[in-house]
Design a protein that fits this description.
binds NADP nicotinamide-adenine-dinucleotide phosphate; ER; alpha/beta; binds zinc ion; about 350 residues
Length: about 350
């Protein structure tokens, strides 16, 4: 239902640090002059959703509706909207607001704006907690909405809005996209498998570095990686010493990073985009003698997210997804924690998210 009073919305929310999600009704702001409102059709499940639901990412705001890989169809536009019309496909990633005037915003780097508003786990401009895409309706300023390429599927494309953007942006910024160079991708999950696909589209040689020996066959034959290292096998790691120009580390948990520096050539860069909930341990000396770099990155700004989506569509890059019904979401979270997904769960919101009948 629309109206002056806001958009009645139904979703699944975490209520406490158990992270267990349950049905939740709430109201989104009414569609403002610069807003697009859309019907959510698909939403990916990022590992960050799991951490956020359990309150691992700082102060949780409960109830919390996660989801920042959101794709759908525009149902209403504000009077001043210029880039969308009703019926357009649309996407929203990790951010729904920023100050629009600071140095970072002026350079299309909204994720680094000190006043950025995340799709969930923030307070919105209306003073209410933001809620993500495990819900049937979104209302967002058109600046933060991504135009959807016609040939990109909504289900396989949705995860690109966070997973794709979070690996694409550092690969561009740190120059890890140069054809012929050799990239390592650590952790073959949602982010990692998309990183392999972008790197291959740029013409890089790709080595996957994984704890799961059973992923080797699919990494090479399905995702197109060139080499595969089991990170817990010291001999394999030793043999690959000094072979990589750069590494994108997507691991979601604490893990040793010093063996990864050993894989880098002189001047190599290790870019950690995973968000372990314990500090990583770094010995500076091996970095010093190889002039190696440790760096990190958030997801892409809005302009770059659009470029990434257009690039993905042009190169037929989508995430490998397991599409699930909304009422499977708690089971999916359990399986995600165990690494039991190839490689992204995507909730079929459009067909399966049903509000409880009102009494
Ligand atoms: P995911 O699908 O669960 O993948 C993470 C991968 O890390 C797993 O598939 C596994 O790969 C590896 N891994 C897990 N536990 C490990 C351990 N104890 N030791 C070594 N490797 C382990 O998660 P995701 O959605 O890709 O997200 C990855 C991380 O990035 C999360 O921490 C997430 O919060 C973070 N993230 C950050 C940003 C950002 O803005 N920087 C954005 C999105 C997500 P193998 O089986 O191949 O070892
Ligand atoms: Zn994410
Ligand atoms: Zn700003």
């Amino acid at each position: 239902m629309a109206g002056e009073d806001g958009v009645k919305t139904f979703g699944w929310a975490a209520r406490d640090t158990s992270g267990i999600l349950s049905p939740f009704e709430f109201t989104r702001r009414a569609t403002g002059a610069k807003d697009v409102r859309f019907k959510v059709l698909f939403c990916g499940i990022c590992h960050t959703d799991l951490g956020a639901a359990r309150g691992d990412l700082g102060l949780p705001i409960y109830p919390l509706v996660p989801g920042h890989e959101i794709a759908g169809i525009v149902t209403e536009i504000g009077k001043q909207v210029t880039r969308f019309k009703v019926g357009d496909k649309v996407g929203v990633g990790c951010f729904v607001g920023s100050c629009r005037s600071c140095e970072q915003c002026s350079n299309d780097l909204e994720p680094y704006c000190p006043k950025n508003i995340m799709t969930y786990l923030s307070i919105g401009e209306d003073g209410a907690p933001t809620h993500g895409g495990y819900s049937n309706e979104m209302v967002v300023d058109e600046h933060f909405a991504i135009r959807w390429p016609e040939n990109l599927p909504l289900d396989g494309g949705a995860p690109l809005l966070c997973a794709g953007s979070t690996v694409y942006s550092p690969m561009m910024y740190y120059g890890l996209n140069k054809p012929g160079s050799h990239l390592g991708v650590v952790g073959l999950g949602g982010l990692g498998h998309v990183a392999v696909k972008f790197a291959k589209a740029w013409g890089l040689t790709v080595t996957v570095i994984s704890t799961s020996a059973r992923k080797e066959e699919e990494a090479i034959n399905r995702l197109g990686a060139d080499k595969f290292l089991v990170s817990t096998d010291p001999q394999q790691m030793q043999e690959a010493t000094g072979t990589l120009d750069g590494i994108i580390d997507t691991v979601s948990a604490f893990h040793p990073v010093m063996p990864l520096f050993g894989l880098l050539k002189t001047h190599g860069k290790l870019v950690v985009v995973g968000a372990p909930n314990k500090p990583l341990e770094v010995d500076i000396f091996p970095l010093m003698i190889g002039r190696k770099m440790l760096a990190s990155s958030a997801a892409a700004g809005i302009k770059e997210t659009q470029e990434m989506i257009d690039f993905a569509a042009k190169h037929n890059i989508t995430a490998d997804v397991e599409v699930i019904p909304a009422n499977y979401v708690n089971k999916a979270m359990e399986r995600l924690e165990k690494g039991d997904v190839r490689y992204r769960f995507v909730i079929d919101i459009g067909n399966t998210l049903v509000a409880a009948p009102s009494t």
